[in-house]
Amino acid sequence: MLLKLMNTQNEYSLALARVILGVVFFAHGAQKMFGWFDGSGFSGTISEFVKFGMPVAVALFAIFVEFLGGLSLLFGLLSRLAALAIIVEMIGAVLTIHIHIGFFMNWVGDQKGEGFEYHLIAIALAFLIMVRGAGALSIDYMVSSRNFRRNREGSARYPDLAKAS
Questions:
Q1: pTM value?
Q2: 29-37 own/partner pairs: CB under 8 Å, 24+ apart
Q3: Measured between alpha carbons, how far is 99 from 18 in angstroms, rounded to an integer?
Q4: Which one, of 124, 6, 154, 36, lies nearest residue 162 by Cα?
Q5: What is the domain partition of the chain in residue ranges?
Q6: CA-derived radius of gyration, the chain
Q7: Which parts of the chain register pLDDT below 70?
């Protein structure tokens, strides 16, 4: 099951999507977790979520999905799980907060918050990664290709066993 989860092809387009999404989510997660990049930090983020009427568990989910999910995507380790978690978080963010604001981001500061266009792009990239895997230059690819080679070599050495399976 774990190897199926890590299975991916040596595709650089997937790697590009994964790394870009990973950078964005790691940066947002670092804001929430440590207060880096002018963020609120761990306790500040929890306070903000509670102020919006959300449970602490939702704040913790957002912090860990963005920070650990971003790292997971950057390294390409269990990227499908990270992508699924990001999709869940982004859908939740759209349905609870951003859908009431509208589609567009608040480029000129005349809205009461941000629209959900960013979230849709994040969902699309995460969906691609969830379906196709981490791609080239990932731990997932290194593990899955090594396992594929090992199975193929074993089949070549023992063709009767390969037919039986």
A1: 0.85
A2: 29/63, 29/64, 29/65, 29/66, 29/67, 29/68, 29/69, 29/70, 29/71, 30/67, 30/70, 32/62, 32/63, 32/66, 32/67, 33/63, 33/66, 33/67
A3: 26
A4: 154
A5: 8-138
A6: 19
A7: 147-165
